[in-house]
Amino acid sequence: MKKYGSICSLLLVMTLCWAGSAEAAKAIVIDGSTTVGPIAKSFASYFMKKYQTPVTVSESGSGNGAKSLINGSCDIADMSRSMKPQEIAAAKAKGINPVASVVALDGLAMVVHPSNPVRNLTESQIADIYSGKIINWRQVGGASFPIVVIQRESNSGTQETFKELVMKGRQVVNSAETQASNGSVKNRVSQTRGAIGFIGLGYTDSLVKKVSVNGVTPSAATVNNHTYMLARELFMYTNGRPAGMVGRFVDLPKTLDGKRIIKELGFISKY
Asked: What is the dihedral of CA 228, 231, 233, 234, to 10 degrees?
């Protein structure tokens, strides 16, 4: 009986070890927002080192992230906006229960070429620029130079946020150039004297100049104290409240290491 008990105990330990290894080995698949992408990628690198769990991160846009979660092709959907009612309805029709976890806070920075003398724009002026009512920088106190309007693609959560917070039902001018990511907007603005665009605060650097909005400069402090109007939450959506490794991943923003990573990337921790 002792020998039989020892064998059973050994088998139980081996089973538990195998189960733990299987959980650790199962890859976590993430898709969605290019704004959340740098956080997701840094989290993935940290997570793989700590837990030896593979993590893949794609940046196809918030809308496609939602579709991937609904279709069951990802574990986590990165989104720089909340899920729309129609997306939630589509998810529930397929037996998916979207649950949002806040990753970080972000400011939507209005950026121009570094040589542009304009330092501040009102919300109304920005809406007039993007609707085509204002077409020259001299109309807002700058040099006489045509304005090149840069926007994001329709599937972008950043585009959705901008339209909600600034445009408020007004249409973006047809001549606006469309870029596929925060990085491509920044590059285009940095190389174009008359350009204006909007990017996540974590993407700003010396290549572009941040413009104050209503007299308030976008920063971690002004986003935190709610004085900067173009602020938002960034999300990771999962099917229900996740357990296991996926649960650990979406809870990273609440940990000391997660907060450090978020701060280093130029985003703002909510926790």
From this structure: -130
Question: Hey, which residues does 29 pair with through a beta bridge?
Answer: 56
Query: Among candidates 175, 202, 173, 177, which has minimal Cα distance to 191?
Result: 177
User: Is residue 142 classed exposed, middle or buried when 0-12, 13-18 and 19+ CB atoms within 10 A define those classes?
Assistant: middle
pLDDT tens by residue, 38-62: 999 999 999 999 999 999 999 999 9
Distance between CA atoms of 44 and 75, rounded to whole angstroms? 13
Its pTM stands at 0.84
Query: Domains in the chain, start-ordered, CATH in brackets?
Result: 26-104+235-264 (3.40.190.10), 106-231 (3.40.190.10)
Judge contact between 33 and 65, C-beta under 8 A.
yes
Alpha-carbon gap, residue 72 to 174, rounded angstroms: 35
For residue 196, pLDDT beyond 60? yes
- Beta bridge partner(s), residue 151: 178
CA distance 23 to 50: 14
CB 53 within 8 A of CB 246: no
What pLDDT does residue 26 have? Answer: 82
Where do the H-state alpha helices sit in the chain? Answer: 2-25, 37-51, 62-71, 85-93, 123-131, 157-162, 182-190, 220-224, 244-250, 256-264
Q: Scanning the structure block, which residue is given the tokens 């139980």? A: 12
The model's pLDDT over 72-96, given as tens digits with 9 standing for 90+, comes to 999 999 999 999 999 999 999 999 9
